[in-house]
UniProtKB/TrEMBL annotation:
Transmembrane segments: 56-79, 91-111
Keywords: Membrane, Transmembrane, Transmembrane helix
Protein name: Predicted small integral membrane protein
Length: 158
């Protein structure tokens, strides 16, 4: 179930980023430009002000989210009865790890600390990123802690 919940969530996030491209691109532009931070001169050298690089980063984020969503959707189908549990676990792990990398390393670490997103009142996505990291981490732990039980009906064999 958790794989399906995360799949639905990230699919909606990716869909929103694609259908509301300009608004969400502005978010990435402001974070990378660091234009709503405290503008500390010792940190501003980190800012990425090139629109081309900002837009490339945003497109990479959307592609990464979309790929993770597709993996998790496929994994959700494999968790259903008659599905391949090993393959489901493998695809779930890949998709969930992709989200941990994007939202943990990308948004929390790079966005939050390197680009000082935590300083921005308007363009701060740390709470949303934290939710994704926690939900994805919980799902990953659950996927790997579930014990394998033989299926008496012969469905969903490994």
């Amino acid at each position: 179930m958790l794989t399906g919940v995360v799949a639905l969530y990230i699919a909606l996030v990716a869909f929103g980023n694609i259908t509301d491209f300009d608004t969400n691109r502005e978010f990435v532009r402001h974070v990378l430009a660091m234009d709503t931070t405290f503008r500390d001169e010792d940190m501003m050298w980190r800012a990425v002000t090139s629109r081309g690089w900002q837009d490339a980063a945003y497109v990479a984020i959307v592609v990464w989210e979309s790929a993770a969503a597709l993996l998790l959707i496929a994994a959700t189908g494999l968790w259903l009865p008659r599905g391949n549990r090993r393959r489901a676990r493998s695809l779930s792990s890949a998709g969930l790890l992709m989200l941990l990398v994007l939202f943990g390393a990308g948004f929390l670490s790079l966005g939050g600390e390197w680009f000082a997103m935590w300083q921005s009142e308007k363009w701060n996505g740390l709470d949303a990123a934290t939710r994704v990291v926690l939900l994805s981490g919980l799902a990953l732990l659950t996927v790997h802690s579930a014990r394998e039980h033989p299926d008496p009906a012969g469905c969903g064999t490994d």
